[in-house]
Every structure is written in structure tokens, then in C-alpha cells.
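ok so I'm stuck.
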Amino acid sequence: MKKPKRLASLMERLKDGRLHSADSLATALRVSVRTIYRDMDELTAAGIPIAGTRGQGYRALASITLPPLNLTETELEVLHLGLAAVGAGAAELPELAQAAQSLSAKIDALLPEEGHAVPFGFAGHPWRDAAQGFRHMPAFRAAIRARQKLRVTLEDGARHDIRPLKIDYWGRIWTCIAWSETAGNFLSIRLDTVAAQVPLPGLFVDEPGKRLDDYAAAPRP
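replied:
not stuck anymore, here's the structure
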């Protein structure tokens, strides 16, 4: 049984309020007792309230349990954006920021291992400021929809006139695939490195060599 399904099964068994020994859980899920100990440590670290210790048994204390949800990548991005926004207000709203951190960790613990090489959870060094990138996201999304060129200034002082083509979400950072009129090639711009952006007059149209399909077909270094 894969870990996400196993963790969900553990929560289903624990939420009945009764005490479950590690041995009985291991037998029911057909894993080792050591695996159960690791899973319990992971659930506890994710902020899920579990009472009990090794050798005594476990039970869940959560008063609210949500049914399983199937999220699209876009829905997951929206959820992460909201949590990042709340988590960024640690100084002003410490209680909500802590809850956002806890919720993010719970989601990270239950995401499938396959296809999610980058964790969902809040970024640590060197990406702890990556959530700032979403402040530019509305402008980039609007430019992509309208096919509007942008003049982008990066934190290192570099400036590019770009055709924004697509925003990619990597769990902790957001990047924009763009054609740079300035450099004459494709760029992958981390939104958290954007210092400023302004729309340029006029819209762009598809041209061979400057389209998203061309970027996808281009060899990577």
C-alpha cells in the first residue's frame, strides 16, 4: 500500500476515538510496526492531533475530518497561494500564520509521492521568500490572456521586454516561460525575482520560433 493511501487508512482507523496499538495497526495495514511508528511521527509532525505514544497505542483527537478531495493542479496552486498569503503575515496574524503552516504540512504529508518531486509545503532556505512572487502573478496572467508584452526588471538589474507565454507552478516557486525580445531567446523567469513590471503598448501575435510550442520543442542545455 502506497504511503498516501496508508496514511488515509490510518486516520480512518484512529478517528473512532479508541486506542489502537501499533501492532494491531501494522497487522491491519500489512506493514511493519516500525513503519507505523514512522507514519505516526509524520502525521504528528504535520500537525494532526494524535494522542498516545509508542508502546501504549494511538487515537486521533481531531474534531473535524474532511472527506477525500481530488484537486487539479490549478486548484492546488490556488490553495497554496492562499496559504502563502496568510503565512506571510506572521508578524500581524501569528495565530493564523501558524495555522496556515500546519495546514500546509498536512497537505504535504498526504500528496502522492509520484509526480510531486517538489513539496507543497512552505518554502525554507533558499526559497523562503518565494511566496512574494505571487504579487506579480495577476499582471503576468493578464498579459498572457491579452497577449500583452511586458517590460520586466529583475532584482539583479537585468531588464527584458518579454512575450509572457505560460506560468508554471513548482510547488514552492512560480516561473513564467517567456520570449525575450531583448535577449532574442526563451527565458524561464522566477516571479519572486521580479522587481518591477510594466505593460508595453501593442499586442503580440504568434511568430515562428517565439511560440510556446517552439519552447517545448527546443533542446534543453
